[in-house]
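Recall that a protein's primary structure is simply its ordered list of amino acids. Everything else, from secondary elements to tertiary packing, is in principle encoded there. The following example makes that idea concrete.
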Amino acid sequence: MGRVRVSNESGRNEIYVVPFQGAGGKWQVSTSGGRFPRWRRDGRELYYLAPDNRIIAAGVNAQESRFEVGAVQPLFAIRPRLEVGWPYDVSGDAPRFLVSNLVEVVAPSSVTLLVNWPALLRQ
């Protein structure tokens, strides 16, 4: 596992992995933009938020001097609340996510309560 960086050197935010120490390469993980990267605890998968607000999982294989990106697949879409910081986190024991989603506020609908309706039926 290396350090994960977000860089916009290509003109948009992309996810890169760089070695912890010393010289080495830089490997691009995202291909269509990304931000908010998180490692899975075992280091075999990297998650990030794509520009269309989908959480993406990228399988990775890290050797001593090699780093390979495997299958990249979208998991699910979120409605992130970016003003509060990190929009999601990954649990340590399983691929479960905690997401800070925007909630649509809907005006409450009105309720009509009819009391003493049996008396109205007798009339």
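The helical segments are 117-122. The first strand starts at residue 3 and ends at 7.
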